[in-house]
Structure formats: C-alpha cells, structure tokens
Specification:
The protein has 144 residues and is mostly helical. The protein has one domain. The chain contains four helices and no strands. Helix 2 runs antiparallel to helix 3. It starts with a helix and ends with a helix.
C-alpha cells in the first residue's frame, strides 16, 4: 500500500476507533458492575477496605468514559451511516445504564446498569460494523 493511500485512510479510521473504545468501555463497565459487589464485600474482611473507595472512584471514571465515548461514537456513527436504529439502541442502552446508576445499591440498579452497559456495547459494536461496511463500500467503488 502506498503512503498517500494509507495517510488518506487514517482520518476515516478515527470514528471506528471511537466506536471500538465505546464497545470496550461499555463491556468493562458491565464486568465492573458484576465483579465489584463481590470484591467489595470481601475486601473489608481482608483488611483492605480502603480499596472499596478506590472502586467507587473507578465506577465514576468508567461512567464518565462510557457516556462520553458512546455519545461521541453515536454522533460520528450516525453522521457516517445514518442508521437511526443504532442511535435509538444507544439511547435505550444509555437510559438503562444511567437509571441503574441512579438506583445504585439496589438489585434493580445492578440489573439496569449491566443491561444498559451490554446494550451500549452491542450498539457501539453494530455502529463499528456499519462503519466498516461503509468504509469497504467507499474504497471499493469510489475514489476520493
């Protein structure tokens, strides 16, 4: 591949990188939501209760990262492939995710958070696949 073609394709890869980041961050949050209650219950018994507050900070950091990456990826993805289904799925996932965090401490909160994070990961993955399809179509039949 020649250098100009590679340099030309780099900006087109940025939305896909954001979509992948949104997917992985959402999955990381789902894992955190599943594992942290177990670890949070064990840490005080091991004399490491100070790590419980660190886990709470991680939760806040993950929430901000997930919301930011999903919002950015949703906006860029919709601009590229105009598929409203992905945007609606992201909106529903985000609604579940944020509702779960608002209900933190309850069994419903945990379920909503995990369902929302998995929904966001799925929607971000679908957006990345649509971007890949658009990219393949653009490079196969058109010159820029």
């Amino acid at each position: 591949m020649s250098e100009p073609a590679h340099a030309h394709s780099t900006p087109e890869l940025e939305p896909r990188r954001l979509e992948r980041a949104a997917t992985w961050l959402s999955l990381a949050c789902a894992v955190h939501c599943l594992v942290f209650p177990l670890i949070g219950g064990i840490l005080p018994a091991l004399g490491a209760s100070h790590l419980v507050s660190a886990g709470s900070g991680l939760d806040t950091l993950l929430t901000v990262a997930v919301v930011g990456s999903v919002a950015g990826s949703g906006a860029l993805g919709f601009t590229r492939h105009r598929d409203l289904r992905v945007l609606v799925a992201m909106g529903i996932g985000l609604m579940f995710y944020l509702t779960g965090h608002a209900l933190e401490g309850s069994s419903l909160g945990l379920g909503f958070s995990i369902a929302g994070a998995l929904g966001l990961a799925g929607a971000s993955f679908a957006s990345a696949r649509l971007s890949q399809t658009c990219e393949d179509h653009d490079h196969a039949g058109h010159s820029h």
